[in-house]
């Protein structure tokens, strides 16, 4: 999870946040106050300010949200194609931080959406595409929707299975390395978001 970096470029709502002031006003009038989004919740926001220092979002009745520059700097691809007034999905890190903003994450929102999609695909036993990005003696590391998964040797197709006499581990690894950067079709056979574990099978697609 990203830590926010203080910046002279960011306006502070610390003294009295817009959302807090709105709540107090509505409460005084006997009207229902807007609910703060919950930490871990996926919400949509409209981009009202975009720079390398921060991404500011209009969250409607929930106030103003921010994605801090530290996350944007480390994940520059998150900003590609984005422009003012675009609607984006974000994950709530802090409903109201010390600066008075709803603190948000684009990266974690993308990951959460990816996990939700993978759960649907596992449930339906859908055949999906994965890119091989690494290898070890136990199998292949694959990328699926930006998340790392693992394809055990035992779940390789007959064509890829290492037919190595004597089971020499170094030769098995050399064989598996040949497949790096290839795109393959797999099914998800095990999924655990808490432990960040994704196990896939190529054999199951045959």
UniProtKB/TrEMBL annotation:
It holds the Pfam family S1. One of its GO terms (molecular function) is nucleic acid binding. Residues 40-107, 125-203 form the S1 motif domain. SUPFAM superfamilies: Nucleic acid-binding proteins. Transmembrane segments: none annotated. It comes from the Bacteria. This is S1 motif domain-containing protein. It comes from Candidatus Portnoybacteria bacterium RIFCSPHIGHO2_12_FULL_38_9.
């Amino acid at each position: 999870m990203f830590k926010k970096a203080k910046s002279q470029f960011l306006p502070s709502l610390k003294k009295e946040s817009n959302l807090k002031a709105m709540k107090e006003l509505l409460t005084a009038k006997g009207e229902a106050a807007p609910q703060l989004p919950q930490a871990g919740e996926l919400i949509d926001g409209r981009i009202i300010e975009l720079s390398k220092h921060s991404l500011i979002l209009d969250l409607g009745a929930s106030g103003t949200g921010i994605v801090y520059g530290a996350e944007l700097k480390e994940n520059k691809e998150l900003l590609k194609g984005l422009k003012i007034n675009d609607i984006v999905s974000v994950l709530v890190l802090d409903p109201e931080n010390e600066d008075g903003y709803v603190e948000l994450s684009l990266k974690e929102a993308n990951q959460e959406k990816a996990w939700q999609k993978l759960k649907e695909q596992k449930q339906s036993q859908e055949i999906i595409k994965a890119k091989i990005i690494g290898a070890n003696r136990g199998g292949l590391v694959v990328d699926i929707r930006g998340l790392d998964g693992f394809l055990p040797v035992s779940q390789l197709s007959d064509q890829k299975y290492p037919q190595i006499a004597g089971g020499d581990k170094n030769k098995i690894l050399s064989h598996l390395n040949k497949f790096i950067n290839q795109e393959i079709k797999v099914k998800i056979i095990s999924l655990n978001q808490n432990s960040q574990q994704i196990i896939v099978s190529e054999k199951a697609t045959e």
